[in-house]
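Assess the record.
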Amino acid sequence: MKTAISIPDEVFHQAEALAKNLGLSRSELYTQAVANFLKSHRSLTVTERLNQVYSQEDSSLDSLVAVMQLKTIDDEQW
């Protein structure tokens, strides 16, 4: 899909230089940049959802599980 966007000249020139250095077309560079931006925001959404869940649920570790974990860690270190 074709689209037209406006960006500051300095950003455009830096993007052009980066695309050239990476051997990418302008379209490939912008596609990768937007895809990475979307991916990073998707992660934020997951974190926000987990924060919501754990703000309402007890997220503490059962004491027996904690003791078992510590024993396992101690065993692995030696």
Remarks:
- The radius of gyration is 23 Å.
- Residues 7 and 13 are 10 Å apart (CA to CA).
- The chain has a mean pLDDT of 88.
